[in-house]
From TrEMBL:
Its main location: mitochondrion. InterPro entries: P-loop_NTPase, Ribosomal_mS29, Ribosomal_mS29_met. GO terms for molecular function: structural constituent of ribosome. Belongs to the mitochondrion-specific ribosomal protein mS29 family. GO terms for cellular component: mitochondrial small ribosomal subunit. It comes from Mesorhabditis belari. It is found in: Mitochondrion. Keywords: Mitochondrion, Ribonucleoprotein, Ribosomal protein, Transit peptide. This is Small ribosomal subunit protein mS29. GO terms for biological process: apoptotic process.
Length: 375
């Protein structure tokens, strides 16, 4: 037996000294706030949370061998708004905002799991920066002159969509395309074909993937508006849809964000022309500043991060602020770490250690976890 297997065996026999929510995620209420809940391993793998969650958390979950997160008021608020999605209402736009380390990305991923477990079709983007700053290959669009395609990233988007919605694949295959799509002279998807054919077309022909992403997103919005599916869209670092890019055009000048095909496809979710769904955005300061810069006064409100153009584009939206732990939340997560042996030194496990960790972290969830990982 390896050391890791031995540790997991010990943890499996350890009694729980913390409160676990008993209701399903979509039924969380304010009475569940401050409790913990576990995301099943099958859901964790299907939703690709090993890559979608913050790196520090995925390492923690890998060591503890379970994905347990806290139900916090922002998640309960997101849940309450999602329940109001109807075909006769425009899609909801929610925006998570708050200081660094207060749980914006974690809340987004929790909401993705909540929507998926309830049977919603999920479109999840880990970071807009992957579309604007980490482009490895570009190709000029033949569909929209002047637009710049990113075949590799588009293929990854289609692969992730298929993986995250694999449990709904039969249902999605029963949805038919509402128009014909002519990708090239030889490649086309005619009207009335299964929606999943668009995904398979993009995966089999990466040079068509960018256009397939746009067609897929358009069809999802149409079918959601008809009431055939409910659609959840989660976009992290969403203010970067109006940010800088590192993509260079043929004349060696840097492209604007609106010139990137994939950026435009995600912006289309923020229009008021579809219903029966929810778009959850995260406003993050990575676009405008170093999140760990302790000297500069940080920008973190939606108006500061989206700018006038982006703010006007997403308005109206519902802002949801993430905040530091309350004393009760800090105590709950401390007990969890203590029970799971995430706290290694004896001095960190008593009441004095609890107080010191809370004070040193300033009750910030990110710093709280990082300190616990090293004591």
């Amino acid at each position: 037996m390896t050391i890791r297997q031995h540790l997991r065996a010990i943890l499996a026999t350890t009694s729980r000294h913390y409160t676990i929510a008993s209701s399903p995620p979509f039924q969380f209420t304010t009475t569940d706030a401050g409790k913990l809940y576990e995301i099943p391993k099958a859901d964790y793998d299907r939703l690709n949370f090993n890559k979608m969650l913050p790196l520090a958390l995925t390492k923690q979950f890998g060591t503890i061998d379970e994905c347990v997160t806290m139900i916090r008021p922002p998640l309960v608020e997101v849940s309450s708004y999602m329940k109001t999605a109807r075909t006769n209402f425009s899609s909801l736009r929610l925006c998570l905002w708050g200081r660094f380390g207060t749980g914006k990305t974690t809340t987004l991923n929790q909401a993705v799991h909540m929507a998926s477990s309830e049977g919603w079709v999920v479109v999840h983007l880990k970071s807009v920066l992957s579309l604007t700053r980490k482009v490895q290959e570009v190709d000029m669009s033949t569909y929209q002159p002047g637009r710049i395609n990113d075949p590799m990233r588009a293929t990854e988007i289609l692969q992730l969509f298929k993986q995250q919605n694999t449990h709904l694949w039969k249902r999605l295959s029963e949805l038919m395309t509402t128009k014909s799509y002519e990708w090239t002279k030889n490649d086309k998807t005619v009207e009335g074909k299964p929606l999943t054919d668009i995904v398979e077309m993009g995966l089999s022909a990466p040079y068509l993937a960018s256009d397939c992403v746009g067609a897929l997103f358009k069809e999802l919005r149409l079918h959601a508006s008809k009431g055939e599916i409910k659609l959840f869209v989660g976009i992290d670092d969403s203010n970067s849809l109006w940010g800088k890019t590192l993509v260079k055009k043929a004349d060696r000048t840097k492209a604007k964000a609106h010139e990137l095909t994939l950026v435009q496809h995600y912006k289309n979710f923020l229009q008021n022309d579809w219903s029966n769904g929810t778009v959850l955005l995260v406003a993050d300061q990575k676009e405008v500043s170093d999140a760990r810069d302790s000297l500069t006064v940080p920008l973190y409100t939606p108006l500061e991060l989206f700018g006038d153009e982006g703010f006007d584009f997403i308005d109206p939206f519902i802002p949801i602020e993430t905040s530091i732990y309350t004393k009760e939340e800090a105590n709950t997560i401390f007990e969890y770490y203590k029970t799971k042996q995430w706290l290694a030194t004896p001095g960190a496990k008593d009441n004095t250690g609890r107080i010191q960790i809370a004070e040193l972290s300033g009750y910030n969830p990110f710093y709280f976890e990082r300190i616990c990982a090293f004591v």
